[in-house]
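hi!! sorry for the late reply, been swamped w classes. u asked for the two structures so here they r. pasted raw, havent cleaned anything up. first the sequence of the first protein and right below it the tokens
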Amino acid sequence: MIPHFSFLGCSGKSTVKHWICLLITAAILTSAASARDARTVMAELMQAERAEQAGLIEELSTYGDTIIADIYEAWRTGGIYLLEQDGGSQLLQFTDAQEWALVHNGAVISLSEAEAAAAKKQRPARALRKQMKRIIDTLGLKADNTALRIDSAIKLGRSQKAEFIPALEARLKVETDKQVRSALQEALAISWLANGEDAQVVEAVQTLKALNSVAARAFLEELMQAEGDNERVDSSLSDACAEALISIERHMKQQEFFGSFFRGFSTGSVLLIVSFGLAITFGLMGVINMAHGEFVAIGGYVTFLVQNFFIQTWGLSSSAFGWYFIVALPVSFIVAAVIGLIMEVSIIRFLYRRPLESLLCTWGISMVMQQGFRLIFGAANVQVNNPTWLMGNLSFAGFQMSYTRLLIILIALVVVALTWLLLRQTNLGLHIRAVMQNRHMASSLGVPVARVNRMTFALGCGLAALGGAVLSQIGNVGPSMGQAYIVDSFMVVVTGSVGNLLGAGLSAMGIGMVDQLLQPSLGPVMGKITVFVVIILFLQWRPGGLFPTLSRSLDD
């Protein structure tokens, strides 16, 4: 029978209007129920009788709010006070900021000296502390943040305490996120290694093998070494552990290879950005710019200054701060391009086709610029924070790829595309290609060679600064940050053929990947030496690089 009800002006028999009123009423009641937050329950628990505490403890176990841990810690250590007044009693928390706050809503209030003296310190009973500890330990399993739930599951599993198994099993039944479910399964399997019967232990080992659990590696090795415990270690269990360890080792090697490949790709992307400008200026002007690395540092320092401007204007925790890196990219390019333009007009234009003189002069400019950075910013590295949207990793087939390195690869692709469009679809690009092929012929045909030189050198310096801006997100920003890349950049230019951008791009990716793939087995130093040896042998075979030019203009 359809009910007759009167609420919020809804009266009479059932109609569409009345059903709508019923839905509104249900929504209001649901909202009122959800308004009962963790603070309210904690405040009630502190004043509840022993018979009422069990229900409130059960209710608290459904929350994932970290405020529960904060309030309980204050309660346990004597930071909660009860103030009884004529109007009723109030529970207060004395915070780390030396302020009084209401427990049930966190509102800060002021107390007179008499009221502060009258407030009585509250502490939980021993039995209640034991129950609360279990809630606090498993609080992270119910957190809204996925990463927190994963971290909490892994932490509980590694403790191998039997008391956490029910909480892990209960959470696994309701968890919907695939990554969190995997972490819960891994945590349960690790826990059963220490607490299960023989059949459960073997099943846990097989689960860890299927998950390729790197975290379980040490526990499995410990289990295999317990040869003296015949009740726990039999042949089937030992074989299962051995198979699981082999599978995990194979998985770790695959992850290490793909990790090195990904890091090599991102390192090659940085080299590509830095060396593109060097390839253009070297191929066009014949100038060996040893100060190219300092323009990388300019990009890093400009990013640092833009970051500080955003912090001073909007604050570090504001949503606007996340945009600073997007703004820093074009600003660093423009600043470095302007400085490069001034440098070309005042110094570089007198050094065309004079490699030795340009090398010595730009090396001196490099020293001057480094000292200038030290005078302005100090000798120590400066801190550049990552925007929040660049923090974290993208998971693909169990492999983690950082958002920062993915952005670097994307920026490198954008630089390649824009440089190609500049050289192929604009008059400036046509003039640059003409001058690179034959400077004197281009000049005789009316190409403004001097202006092309200025614009090209400014473009090269701006690209170097872009490399410095992206490097600020994965490394330190300091006076000599560009020196680590200047040698590699020249190797990229020479190996890829002087003035050939396709060769520079392929060479940058090749050098970056080979370097990162060799480092895990040979170490950073020997890996770098091996790369240089390979480059030397390659140049002995192909002195002109990957794509040697057919122009005779470089012989002038």
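now the second protein. again sequence first, tokens right under
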Amino acid sequence: MAERLKSAEPGSPAGLLSGLTDKLQELESAVLRQAERFSAVLEIGTTLASARDVDAILRTVVERLSSLLGAEAATLFMLDAQKQELWSRVLRGSALDEIRLPLGTGIAGHVVATGESLLLGDAYSDSRFHPNIDRQSGFSTRSMVAVPLKHVSGRILGVVEVLHTRVNAFTADDLALVEAVATQIAAVLDNVLLYEELRAQNEELRKAKSELSEALKDLDLLFEVEKSVSSAEKQSDLLDGILAKATATLGATAASILLAEQDAGALYFKSVTGEKAESLKAMKLRPGQGIAGHVAQTGQAVRVTLAQASPHYDESLSRRLGVKTDAVLCVPIRTEDQVVGALELLNKPGGFTETDERLATLLAGQAGRAIQLRRNREEGERRARLAAIGQMLSGVVHDFRTPLTVISGYTELMSAEPDEKQRQAYLAVVDKQFEHLNGMMRETLAFARGERELFLRKVYLQKFASEIEEYLRQEFRKSPVRLQVVPRYTGPARFDESKLRRVVFNIARNAVEAMPDGGNFLFSIDREDDDLVLRFEDDGPGIPPEIAHRLFESFSTAGRAEGTGLGLSIVKRIADEHGGTVRCESTPGQGTRFEFRVPVGLAA
């Protein structure tokens, strides 16, 4: 029957039936192919939906897609927005291990930029094609299907390309198939990318948590060290505290802190723990000797699992002490502007880690700051003591003028006095002034030693006032200023006679210097309740307003060429030492009034 149909004339009923039969067979084949492709798409969708190892599944999908289309090569590109490039997550049929394209390059770049699929019968005839990849791989691309991996939101995740070396190897149906598969891949990749992003964020959080935990441990350690430093009274206690923390925290079995003496290059063991510690304290290292010497000289840390592995290791030190050195961690100790020593830790089981080095550096930094602060404080105290001694000496020199004036005056009287008895009386006054000078020098030495003592004794004001008047008259004898001494209280009181004499002389001398053309100066002594009150009044020009508010500060003067600005600061200090007060009232052009008040002190 079939032979009869085949041999039938084309226009005959038999010929028409034969043509219809062929068409039915072609249609049946097409339907079968579409059913097969539809089934493959469903299979791919099912495979993607159950994905666990995404990369393995994507490779399987690309392999299946290539097989359905008869493609010779295929690539799944992912978009890296941060690096602005496309990279091959799945690469089939190429000699290359990976392909990376700058965004906007080639067919893949065009598809990402436009979001539209492309079906090319001959890629080399399209100006958008980028042939460099072919040149690198040796593959000759002709037919190409390129489809964007587009999420339902419109976001482009990448590109799927299938390739063939034959021209016009793919059809519109092939393009539709790739688009169907690409839609499913995009849906899965969107979830995968979200998962990877969350995993990366979780990893960052975990890392941040770990770093925060380490930072808190470091802070706790530094806090403990700071407490040890703060409570240490001596530098040796300070270094011992830091070394104990370093040894316990870093697991060292021996450790030492070595410092260079100022203006010397040798290193001295200032704090040591572990075997033969006491023997080490008696040793010193030459500049650059051993690992510690190298670290202190260069400022570069050394960390080795075995000491002999370091070119700076000095085996003679271990031999002299009879100890074995294995793992070594040595970091420099720095102050503000230089390396002053080294912190060396030895023999941790398993060796020291990078974390250990970081912690040791923190501890060494803490030690350096503590050493610098202590040196600054000691230097400040030394300068303050020298400044105070200098100020005290200036005050003494200032006060020497009165007894020297008295000595000078009485020496002149002695030279012209014929009466032996009177000369002896003058000599007694001179001797007393020398005694007064010696007392001031003793006071200066006591101050230099940090001793601030008052030599309190019972003094009768009648005698005190008489002697003061006699000495003041020597001070005033070359001045036109008129002196008046009024001791309204002449009973006893307890005070440091030498220091109160200085109070009187300092204020009186200021009055004389303030009235070079003459005037009046009154010194009176009173008792008010339990206070001894010394008052000083003059009718001079008064105190300049610009220094009135800082009258009792050191080095405050009214511009006198020979003034030191110390007289009234000494008066204030003597009042404070006696538990008393001193105050001043002054009106420009009308004079000045001082009131010096201290306890009578008889009950003591």
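hope this helps!! also noticed smth abt the second:
Confidence is low (pLDDT under 50) at residues 555-565.
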